[in-house]
Automatic annotation (TrEMBL):
The lineage of its organism: Eukaryota, Metazoa, Chordata, Craniata, Vertebrata. The keyword Nucleotide-binding applies. It comes from Mastacembelus armatus (zig-zag eel). It holds the Pfam family Ras. This is small monomeric GTPase. It comes from the Eukaryota.
């Protein structure tokens, strides 16, 4: 049995700019209209794998920390304005020794979620270095979102929310604090990315642009333990 799916790829135009192209193809046991690649980046132990597992399975990976080796991925299909949007999410290893492996994948990503841990100052300080790498290796029009993870750990917090907000403003990227443990803002982060990518791909010339910052602000307070309500 085969079901129809449409995948969205990013092609280079003659003048070098990126252009999204819809492609139809068939797949077994999976239906979607558009597909995008999203990468999770950030220092080791900031919670990339946990955020992904929270989004994909609605569970928290507590207990012993097992570092990701190289790169791993999971798919999730979400509904955006009556379209099935497949996010193929690449979970990268934060450890320095895997950096050359992960660089090779940056180019294919249409969106990057860049995480730090609000209880770990160096992971926040390293965000500028991550952004430099992103500008070196990723597509020019890649969607970037900054996430301050582990927001449930209020007693251990060392990075203020406003520091995250200010850094995000400086780079012109959307920002929110998340918790893979409680689920706060995790679904919202991926949904905002899915909406932005879907709008970029399907937008008509006279249609207003999707405002990701406004969308996040309007939804932030509605997002509870189990995702968007
Ligand atoms: N309290 C709390 N702990 C978290 C949260 N997210 C992750 N953790 C814990 O932080 C540790 C690291 O989480 P991972 O998701 O494995 O970190 P990672 O960024 O994928 O690490 P690498 O694979 O080395 O890049 C684990 O012990 C998790 O249980 C969170 O939101 N809150």
């Amino acid at each position: 049995m085969s079901t129809r799916k449409t995948s969205l790829t990013d092609k280079q135009t003659k003048n070098g700019t990126s252009k999204y192209v819809l492609e139809r193809c068939a797949s077994i046991n999976e239906y979607y209209d558009i597909s995008f690649k999203v990468m999770l980046l950030g220092d080791s132990a900031v919670g990339k794998t946990c955020v992904l597992v929270r989004f994909k399975d609605g569970a928290f990976l507590g207990g012993n920390f097992i570092a990701t080796v190289g790169i791993d991925f999971r798919n999730k299909v979400v509904d955006v304005d009556n379209l099935k949007v497949k996010l193929q999410i690449w979970d990268t290893a934060g450890q320095e020794r895997f950096r050359s492996v992960t660089h090779a994948y940056y180019r294919d990503a249409q969106a990057l979620l860049l995480l730090y841990d609000i209880t770990n100052k160096p992971s926040f300080d390293n965000i500028r270095a991550w952004l430099t790498e992103i500008h070196e290796y990723a597509q020019k029009d890649v969607v970037i979102m900054l996430l301050g993870n582990k927001s449930d750990m209020t007693a251990e917090r060392v990075v203020k929310t406003e520091d995250g907000e200010n850094l995000a403003k400086e780079y012109g990227v959307p920002f929110m604090e998340t918790s893979a443990k409680t689920g706060v803002n995790v679904e919202l982060a991926f949904l905002a990315i899915a909406k932005e990518l879907k709008h970029r791909a399907t937008q008509q010339p006279n249609e207003p642009k999707f405002q990701i910052h406004d969308y996040i602000e309007s939804q932030k307070h509605k997002s509870g333990c189990c995702g968007l309500m």
